[in-house]
Write a structure and sequence with these properties.
Helix content: 55-70%
Shape: rod-shaped
Distance between the termini: 94 Å
Order of helices and strands: HHHHHHHHHEEHHH
Strand content: under 5%
CATH topology of the largest domain: Four Helix Bundle (Hemerythrin (Met), subunit A)
Strand order of the largest sheet: 1-2
Oligomer: single chain
Largest sheet: 2 strands, antiparallel
Structural class: mainly alpha
Length: 289
């Protein structure tokens, strides 16, 4: 391997993996953020981190194709590939594919004839082989800087927005990016979300007996009876009280971010239903007898 080819191969490695003279390489820039953050848009009009990682593989693919004699131009989908769900598994797979493409190209560069570095890679391609090889390294450094800026923006945003604001910000800025990759299950949960799930279950369980007795035309104990919870209230009062509990339960369901993807939220929701149901059965036992 000649000196110039060795230097090109070394620049390709350093741009992705490290040991740069100044600044952070791509893989170092990709460390230290979650899947939800990788899919969010802290800077309006800019691509997110996950989209950039997918994009970084496009020039590897292009140059490897030209090395094989294929001079076709890239399509828009080649340049910015479709963005899958931003999960930890998908992100790890994308980074591994990036590493593999880098190693494959470096192998090709090591064996490339130095006397052909000033020639086009394929017929009809305006750029020389040298320009294409070093251009990939430059492209990686450029986007590593973008990723670093996005991470700074993420840190600044996290100081003033909680995860509900993350989701709302993504909805507002989704029109500025070609594709949105935000999965709802990736937004982190806090303690008050689980508290909301528990009380949502409690209010929904409490709504059932009041609403059922009310629409059946039966008087039933309510907090508005005399004495409260022991005396009987009219069916109309119980219908209204049951509907109020349904509405509060619905609001708490929204706050608790209930979905089939969040198993712990569902567990806490049903725990609230079970707890309130047992309490109601004990409270109204004397009335039945």
């Amino acid at each position: 391997m000649t000196g110039e080819v060795h230097r090109l191969e070394e620049q390709l490695r350093r741009a992705l993996e490290g040991e740069a003279w100044e600044g952070s390489p791509v893989l170092e820039s990709l460390a230290g953020h979650s899947a939800a953050q990788a899919a969010s848009h802290p800077i309006a009009g800019a691509h997110n981190i996950f989209e950039l990682v997918l994009h970084l593989g496009s020039d590897y693919t292009l140059v490897l194709r030209r090395l094989a004699g294929d001079a076709r131009r890239r399509t828009a989908d080649d340049v910015w590939p479709a963005c899958p769900a931003s999960t930890g598994e998908n992100r790890q797979q994308t980074v591994q594919e990036l590493k593999l493409l880098n190693r494959t190209l470096r192998d090709e560069v090591r064996d490339y004839p130095v006397e052909r570095l000033d020639d086009p890679l394929a017929t009809g391609v305006p750029c020389t082989a040298h320009t294409q090889f070093i251009g990939i390294a430059q492209h990686k450094v450029y986007h590593a800087g973008q990723i670093a800026l996005l991470k700074h923006a993420l840190a600044a945003t996290a100081a003033s927005f909680d995860e509900e604001s993350w989701a709302g910000h993504d909805r507002m800025t989704s029109g500025t990016s070609k594709r949105s990759c935000v999965p709802s299950s990736e937004i982190p949960m806090k303690w008050y979300h689980f508290l909301a799930c528990f009380f949502a279950g409690a209010f929904l369980a409490n709504a059932a007996p009041h609403f059922v007795h009310g629409v059946s035309g039966d008087p039933f104990p309510s907090p508005f009876a005399q004495p409260p919870g022991k005396g009987l209230s009219s069916p109309t009062v119980n219908v209204l009280w049951g509907l109020s509990n349904f509405f509060i339960g619905y609001l708490l369901l929204r706050l608790g971010k209930i979905s089939h993807e969040r198993r712990w939220n569902l567990f806490v929701l049903f725990l609230g239903v079970i707890t309130m149901s047992i309490m109601l059965s004990v409270t109204f036992a004397d009335r039945i007898h």
